[in-house]
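Q: What would this chain look like folded?
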Amino acid sequence: MVRTKAETGVEMEALTAVGVAALTLYDMCKAITHKMEISDVRLVGKHGGKRDFGQTEL
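A: My prediction, written as structure tokens:
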């Protein structure tokens, strides 16, 4: 979960951070096996800004 006081664009920064973290873990573990998969990276909910959607109760 990410919380911030910024007005807009935070969800894109959070998704980018999650993607980079997942790719970093993949890179560190690929010497062990290549049978890894990065999946289900998604935004569950957003509260504030111009539009709310999904899970908004924090």
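The helical segments are 10-29.
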